[in-house]
Design brief:
transmembrane transporter activity, 375 residues, membrane, Growth Hormone, Chain: A, two-stranded parallel ribbon, 2 domains, Sugar_transporter_CS, mainly alpha
């Protein structure tokens, strides 16, 4: 049985095989890295993309909630900033802690736990009565997001075929931005004359988060992680179940390894660590400063059609992310990095459009270099 798959980007028609159905026992052996896309790949990609859409929504709604929270809770500028930025603090902690834990207990457990935490914390925002309550819950949401960012990308990369891996991983920025656009629409809908509308807006993020949590239940463990733990039989059983008995991992020589976080700063990896850290800091700081406070700024200056302005800016983000996907698929990653820098040098003379295209393309370039710089 064959069919189309939404993620068949390279002009081929990928297989849609449920588990190993339809695979003949005399099929020639093939490495998991060299497989065409099948239904299982699409499922993992959809779960990862759905998570990123939810992440964008969760982080986007806070900017609109702050409009009502400021008078309702008598927020000082400091407390408003803490509520707006607390999820980023949690994201930093979650990516470090849950990413490290996943190396020891497995990808699948954190893959599910991260969104269970996001679901519960998002729902509990409805009952928050003080700024401290919201800050604590937003930190928990951020911890879940950090775990999802570190484990979701890894799990998708470890299951994906080599040929499609780059574009699957890079598409996260497009999907994340769509979630942010949905947050803008929901924010304009919920923020009305009702002073308690912020509760419904923040808690609404629990619905897509719950759906992702339920769909992730039962996701198999990464066979590559199992190999590194020396659990060869389990790794091959998963590969045979979801891809067929003719599929080989090709990494049977891998043995269990335990590396300290200081490895990131070793002579071999410190340049990559610095490269990605600087890029994402430069991306996240202006992004969240602008978009967390954009609704408040629009209200303060009396912008009549704030929704249209917000959607236009977010549309630029989507265009930039799509542009990064296309260009990195056509261009060599290293060359594209330098081209993006050169284009960014003229961003000031071309206004906001060039700036947003630059940081989206640069972020995508950074992600590609992070995952594939050694290949």
């Amino acid at each position: 049985m064959t069919g189309r798959c939404l993620f068949g980007f390279s002009g081929e028609q990928p297989f849609l095989l449920p588990d190993n159905e339809g695979v003949k026992m005399n099929t020639s052996p093939v490495r998991m890295d060299d497989l065409p896309l099948n239904r299982f790949h699409c499922r993992i990609a959809a779960l990862t993309f759905g998570a990123h859409l939810t992440d964008g929504y969760v982080l986007g709604v806070i900017g609109y909630a702050i409009i009502q929270l400021t008078p309702a809770m008598q927020l000082t500028p400091f407390m408003a900033g803490m509520i707006g930025g607390s999820a980023l603090l949690g994201l930093f902690l979650g990516s470090l802690v849950l990413g490290w834990i996943s190396d020891h207990i497995g990808r699948q457990k954190i893959f599910t736990f991260s969104f269970l935490l996001i679901t519960l914390a998002s729902f509990l925002q409805f009952f928050a009565t003080t700024p401290e309550h919201l800050i604590g819950l937003r930190i928990l949401i951020g911890i879940g997001l950090g775990g999802d960012y570190s484990v979701g990308h890894t799990l998708l990369a470890e299951f994906s075929p080599r040929r499609h891996r780059g574009i699957l991983l890079g598409a996260f920025s497009v999907v994340w931005t769509v979630g942010y656009v949905l947050a803008s629409i929901a924010g304009h809908h919920f923020i009305s004359e009702n002073p308690e509308a912020w509760r419904w807006l923040l808690a609404s993020a629990a619905l897509p988060a719950l759906l992702i949590t339920l769909l992730r239940w039962g996701t198999p463990e990464s066979p590559r992680w199992l190999l590194r733990q020396g659990r060869f039989a389990e790794a091959h059983a998963i590969v045979h179940r979801y891809f067929g008995p003719h599929v080989l991992l090709g990494d049977e020589v891998v043995t269990a390894t335990h590396k300290h976080i200081k490895t990131l700063f070793s002579s071999r990896y410190w340049r990559r660590t610095a490269f990605n850290s600087v890029f994402f800091v430069c991306l996240v700081i202006p992004w969240f400063v602008i978009y967390t406070w954009l609704p408040t700024i629009a209200q303060t200056i009396g912008l009549e059609d704030a929704l249209t302005a917000s959607l236009m800016l977010n549309a630029l983000l989507i265009v930039g992310a799509l542009l990064g996907l296309v260009l990195t698929h056509l261009r060599h990653i290293a060359n594209f990095c330098w081209e993006v820098f050169a284009a960014g040098g003229n961003a000031g003379s071309h206004g906001l459009f060039a700036f947003r295209q630059f940081i989206n393309a640069a972020a995508f370039c950074s992600l590609q270099h992070h995952h594939f710089g050694s290949q």
